[in-house]
Amino acid sequence: MTRIDDRAVDERIPITLLTGFLGAGKTTLVNRLLSAPDAGRIAVIVNEFGEIGIDGDLIARASEDMLELTNGCICCAAQGDLMDGLNKLFLRKVGLAEPRVDFDKIVIETTGIADPSPLARLFYTDMKLDLTFRLDAVLTVVDLKHVQGQLARSPEAEKQVAIADKLIFNKRDLVDDAAFAAAVAAVERLNPFSLKEVTTHGALPVDALLDLDLFEPKRRDDMVGAWIGADRPADAAHGEHVHTPGVGAVCLQTAAPLEWNALLRFFLELVQEKGEDLFRVKGLVHFQNVDKPVILQGVQATFSPPTYAESWPRGEVATRIVVIGRNLDAAAMQEGFMACVARRETELDRGLGAI
Questions:
Q1: DSSP 278-306
Q2: Cβ atoms within 10 Å, residue 352
Q3: β-strands 105-109, 13-20: how paired?
Q4: Where are the alpha helices (H) located in the chain, listed in sequence order?
Q5: Residue 211, CA atoms < 13 Å, CB-side half-sphere
């Protein structure tokens, strides 16, 4: 019997969470996305219409809480709770509220000082939300000219970078090569293993922004390796194996199979120790007596139920877990992680005879 891959028929509505500090260029990127002929039918949710500045040439009609655009897309104002905004959108899509609208995907543009973690955690804790929507990716737009100062002054800017599945380095035209290298280094200290794009004026193709399956890859096997930075050696991030203050990343990896309960205790203790200073955990785990890679994913103290990936990146069977947080002690974490390696099951020595 042919097995149907349930990931291929996931009909939940994908959501792209677009974040980035004030002035990073989110508005320009959204306008480019909405004007792209191959973007499909998108619903954009913003806090206030005036904040995002939708291009007037794209607007066909305006109502109290919705802009209808000439290309079939819509823009809604989340006046109050974002969950209410998502619910209203869904009711309009299925014809249970007026005006009825049709869309295939949603882009949520956060305010420039917003912490994206609470929304990301909702996809693990709100069953109604998870049954209707799936978080496709967290995209963080980075202002190359000002990001170093923003990171130095703002914990929110640090968290926006740390939680990103993909970083978009914007305003490349405003910095020279030396300033560009310094800005990238400052960002990579916080999140060295995420995917990255470099652009000016948010000029990126649609397939670099939507349908990425990067938050918790279940639909595209080709994105699993990129999701945990498997194409990048673990020692590529400066300082990841030493104890350094501030936000940073630690990569834990081993080819030896791990014991489930031991790894569970390891992360329970880490959550208890770090609390809200633990930003993101993501990885593929090789468990004892389990053939497939297990996807491990968490935002702060909230972890999703473990799921399977279909194959190992590059065919290499090995655990690789990326932990991003504040004031991580890499040496202590590595020691605790290696204590999770499964012991070999006792083998019968036939030379000793039988009982």
A1: EEEEEEEE-BTT--SPEEEEEETTEEPPP
A2: 7
A3: parallel
A4: 26-35, 49-52, 82-93, 117-125, 127-132, 147-153, 155-162, 177-190, 224-227, 260-274, 330-338
A5: 13
Instruction: Tell me the C-alpha distance between 155 and 111, whole Å.
Output: 15
**324: phi then psi, degrees, rounded to nearest 5:** -120, 130
CB atoms within 10 A of CB 226: 21
Mean pLDDT over residues 202-206, rounded?
A: 92
What's the number of CA atoms in the CB half-sphere (13 Å) around residue 46?
19
Is 3.30.230.30 the CATH number for 13-215?
A: no
pLDDT, residue 219, reads 63
Q: Please give the single-letter amino acid code of residue 70.
A: T
pLDDT range class, residue 239, cuts 50, 70, 90: very low
Closest CA to 283 of 145, 270, 275, 273: 270
Q: Summarize pLDDT for 110-162 with one digit per residue, the tens.
A: 876 678 888 888 877 888 888 899 999 999 999 999 999 999 999 989 999 99
Query: For 164-184, what is each residue's pLDDT tens digit?
Result: 999 999 999 999 999 999 999
DSSP three-state, residue 68: strand
* Domain ranges (residues) in the chain: 13-215, 243-338
CATH of domain 243-338: 3.30.1220.10
